[in-house]
Amino acid sequence: MKFHKKTDYLIDIRLFRDGRMAFWYALLALVLLLAPLATPEYLLGQAVFTGIYVVAGAGLMLLSGYCGQISLGHAAFLAVGAYTSALLEKAGVPFPAALLAAGMVAAATGVLIGIPALRLSGIYLAIATLAYAFIVTEVLLRWESVTKGASGIHVSKIDVFGWQADTELRLYYIVLVVAALSLLAVRNILRSPLGLAMMAVRDSETAARTMGVPVARVKLTAFALSAALTGFAGALYAHKVPYIEPEQFNILISVELLVLIFIGGIGSLHGIVFGAVFVISLPQWIAIAKDYLPAYVAQQTGLQAAIYGLLLLLFIVFEPAGLYGIWLKIKHYASMFPFYRKGAMRLQKTHAKSETW
Amino acid sequence: MVSPLLEVDRLSIAFGGIRAVAEVSFSVDEGEIYAIIGPNGAGKTTVFNLISRLYDPDGGAISFAGQDLLALPGHRIPAAGIARTFQNIKLFDNASVLDNLMMGRYLHHRANLAQQVFFTPFTRREKLADRARVEEVIDFLELQRHRDKLVDGLPYGVKKVVELGRALALEPRLLLLDEPASGLSPEETDDLVFWIEDIRDELGVTVLMIEHDMKLVAAVSDRVLAMNSGEVIAEDAPGAIQAHPDVVAAYLGA
Amino acid sequence: MDPAVEFFQALVSGISIGCIYALVALGFVLIYKATEVINFAQGELMMVGAFFAFTFVDLGGMPFIVGVLLALAATALFGMMVNLLLLRRLVGRSSFTIVLATVGLGTLLRALASMVPGWGAETHALTNPATGRTVAVAGVTVSYEHIAVVVATIGLVALLYVFFRFSRLGVALQATSQNQLAAGYVGIPIKAMFSAAWGIGAGVACVAGILLAPSHFVHVNMGFVGLKAFPAAVIGGFGSIPGAILGGLIIGVAEELAGLYLPEGFKNVAAYVVMLALLMVRPQGLFGVDLRERA
């Protein structure tokens, strides 16, 4: 069992708690960089989707998980990012600029939603975000002169001054970098005053105000940053698909993102990754499981959605700390073995916890 | 004659048809420990809420260190130098004690958004400096044992101390304490007496407190204001106020 | 067509669909008031209710009234079961968790409904006695179905009013809505009240589904129509029953008018635009209570 002896304040805010932790993450980085060279194309594609969802999930976790503002319509930011990037690149803008622009435009949209949201709380806020998502999708559908409406847009390959991401492998590396940077950005925000302020706003606006936190400004910043991250994800998504049309960014995607952050583990960075892996790989697991199910059940088109809904409910009822919570329990069990006490990690009926790591 | 640190002049507010605070006037000198007493519903917490600008008064004025407080929005009050605790404890439940205390340092940071997202050395230095200041508060209030614990599961008495610590971390000039002793055991209340005195003597903070515990009030206060039904009924030294006929009548019901 | 007639035609359609929105919103608000649960699966309850009616009337061959009553009972029971199996385990959890839970429930119900033999993913018609018949009033075509919707809505609302005002259970439910702790202290069995609230909420959803069937048909995605009930409830002011009804009507009429006078696409988002516009000036809705934190 490892006991962490702290000898200076830096330990609490450093990226890696100690050398051992840094070692494991370096190993992980190595695997992520080298393994794809020997991976089949199809799995690489799945990895790309996972990376994209990590970026989008990071955005939603920031807004809903850390700042407490429920967003039921996050797919709207995905859409804005995707269309901004696709349209700019069609006009000849190089990818890095288009990516940045996608984030900026999405952030602007985020502020637009954020301003009326300032006066709203709880359920009003949630439904307002839902409303906004519907409106954004409708606008994209009807603004045919620009977005080609329901016909959609075919997105060109990523082009960085001549270097094209024309293979899945190249796209993978780009997504890997963006995903890693996104997680780092969220981590930085969390250990900075803004992150603390966001969590304060989540837990008690009145107390936060008493501490001098400009609540409105913090909320708007959260909306903007969250939207920007999701906008980046949208831009990458556009290149992966590579054909986008408004119907793709529907409420089911928004729900998927919410499921991602919850099942992953609300309030934890690891949770974002766990959640993304879960959401992307679930259809694969179901496809494998079909062989073991009775024929009538296996054939149903609704099977995937049913399992999805059922898993969500099971996690909510039995494991609200999500996959990250399970991961912590396993680590705890392993470190305490054979002195593990059953009550040590019993489910506590408390609210979601927030950790900076 | 030095002017008072806090001046409240004919403050009034009504909610619906109820006059919660009616023409309340008093002043607090720098370095004083000033207590407000009164039965439940007297309007004491409402006065606090008016001073910390959670409500807008219907009439009257508040000035702090010569500045008109009513011109400031709620979240600028701490910057002006006023910190407060709450009757019903408003801590950040999902954060650790340390994080709650660090929130008190929010005002003192200067890093902008970009510096925070990229966690520049400037941000890191500020964060470490904040941590050092917060550790001083932790030392002062003996919260070392609870530093990393989640606030949610802590005993009530400890939570009250954490809230006090959070207010102190702000380094205020004036500290508003709303019933600091409620829910505390006699031993904890004794600690509170020493802490409040130390807050005034060592940290140089002026204390304005609402309190029911007359033992505490008598032990630390320089002056006491008695309120009832939104109005001021007496102002005097702690010993004298307890004998004041209007105060006795208010508590016992004439 | 004469513009005045067009307008009134839109008004009639708007009131009709508005009544259905109102009913879904009503069930939603009932559950919220009594249990503080925000039920994002209300639309799916409506879908289940419609399917029950379809099963009894069309598949089972029963007379319409009998089938409807059976469906009402079945849906109410279904709602109570949902409360028992799921919501009871979530007491005390954050509203984010509960919202997510009801969203998951909705997804599950949609998927399971598509797997029921006889239901499946196809669109079905619910045979009802009012189909096809219309009456003309001053040039405006009013179908019997429109009339049935309005009459049924008024009847149901009146019934609920009497129930809440004068029956023991109704008064007990009101007490629970206003202050759960106090209601518990005077001996009201809170858990049973929650079940009752879900039963009634589901029953109301069932009625809405049956009324919606003629125009939108019975299929597993029916519940999405119910999404509009949320703006309705919000416009009326969350937690206000008359507000929910008014909100539903406002949205129904706004939608039809938008479809008539505004370019294509506005009709789909009319509900949301109206809601956002109202929330700008009145964050708590028309009759709502300020939900913000008290100092």
What does this structure look like?
The complex is a heterotrimer of chains A (357), B (254) and C (295). Chain A has 16 helices and four strands. Chain A has 357 residues and is an all-alpha fold. In chain A, helix 8 packs antiparallel against helix 11. The C terminus of chain A is likely disordered. Chain B has two domains: 145 residues, Rossmann fold (3-Layer(aba) Sandwich), CATH 3.40.50.300; 85 residues, Rossmann fold (3-Layer(aba) Sandwich), CATH 3.40.50.300. Chain B is built from ten helices and ten strands. The mean pLDDT of chain B is 87. Chain C has 295 residues and is mostly helical. Chain C has one domain. Helix content of chain C is 70%, strand content 3%. Chain C has a two-stranded antiparallel ribbon. The longest helix of chain C is centred in the N-terminal third of the chain and has 33 residues. Classes of the chains: A mainly alpha (357), B alpha/beta (254), C mainly alpha (295). Chains in contact: A-B, A-C, B-C. At the A-C interface, helix 6, helix 12 and helix 15 of A face helix 4, helix 9 and helix 11 of C.
What summary fits the major beta sheet of chain C?
2 strands, antiparallel
Question: What Rg of chain C is obtained from the alpha carbons, in whole angstroms?
Answer: 19 Å
Which structural class should the secondary elements of chain C be placed in?
mainly alpha
What helical percentage do the residues of chain C reach? 55-70%
Question: Could you report the average pLDDT of chain C, rounded to the nearest whole number?
Answer: 86
Biggest sheet character of chain A: 2 strands, antiparallel
**Approximate strand percentage of chain C:** under 5%
Strand order in the sheet with the most strands of chain C: 1-2
What is this structure's SSE topology?
The complex is a heterotrimer of chains A (357), B (254) and C (295).
Chain A: H1 10-13, H2 19-34, H3 41-66, H4 75-90, H5 95-117, H6 122-142, H7 144-147, E1 153-154, E2 159-160, E3 163-164, H8 168-190, H9 193-203, H10 205-210, H11 215-240, E4 243-244, H12 251-265, H13 269-289, H14 295-299, H15 303-318, H16 322-336
Antiparallel strand pairs in A: 1-4, 2-3
Helix pairs in contact in A: 3-8, 3-11, 3-12, 3-13, 4-5, 4-6, 4-11, 5-11, 8-11, 9-11, 12-13, 12-16
Chain B: E1 6-15, E2 18-28, E3 33-37, H1 44-51, E4 59-64, E5 67-68, H2 77-80, E6 82-84, H3 97-103, H4 113-117, H5 121-141, H6 156-169, E7 174-178, H7 186-201, E8 206-210, H8 214-220, E9 223-228, E10 231-236, H9 238-241, H10 245-252
Parallel strand pairs in B: 3-8, 3-9, 6-7, 7-8
Antiparallel strand pairs in B: 1-2, 1-4, 4-5, 9-10
Chain C: H1 3-35, H2 42-59, H3 64-85, H4 95-115, E1 134-137, E2 140-143, H5 144-166, H6 168-178, H7 180-185, H8 190-216, H9 229-236, H10 241-261, H11 266-281
Antiparallel strand pairs in C: 1-2
